């Protein structure tokens, strides 16, 4: 394992152990549930959205280290962002996670989320890492049906 992936591993373990924004948001006006049956990850995302901008975000749920760390880091990255900004962030994240392992992914503008570039070596884990994002987009659209990655 090289130094960079070791550092990324540490970031993911840290967020799994101490997830940020891990609670129910009392004044949420958008909410969605997500489920990844492949791994058993479950998540609820709460949002407080004002003028198309995410003012506050939190999550609850249970799942593997990747799904929890991904949700935790995502909540840190999207506060104050508009829906359009969040959609383009997710496109970048998704592109990074699905770049073939023998190519260099484009990590521009991803910041700490670059920690998830390692999941592209484990295609099954991509669903764990994107569950929070899919659920977030559903919450932004205020969909009431639970999201499944299947
Ligand atoms: Zn998982």
Task: Describe the model.
The protein has 150 residues and is an alpha+beta fold. It has one domain (2-148): Sufe protein. Chain: A (Alpha-Beta Complex). The protein is built from 4 helices and 4 strands; from the N terminus they run αβββαααβ. It has helices spanning 3-17, 65-78, 83-98, 123-140; strands spanning 30-36, 41-50, 53-62, 147-148. A 4-stranded mixed β-sheet has the order 3-2-1-4, covered by helices on one side. Helix 1 (3-17) packs across helix 2 and helix 2 (65-78) runs parallel beside helix 4 (123-140). It is globular. The protein starts with a helix and ends with a strand. The relative contact order is 0.22. The model has no long low-confidence stretch (mean pLDDT 92). The chain binds zinc ion (ZN). Zinc ion is lined by residues 36, 39, 41, 63-64, 66-67, 128.
Annotation keywords:
Sufe protein. Chain: A; alpha+beta; about 150 residues; four-stranded mixed sheet; about 20% strand; binds zinc ion
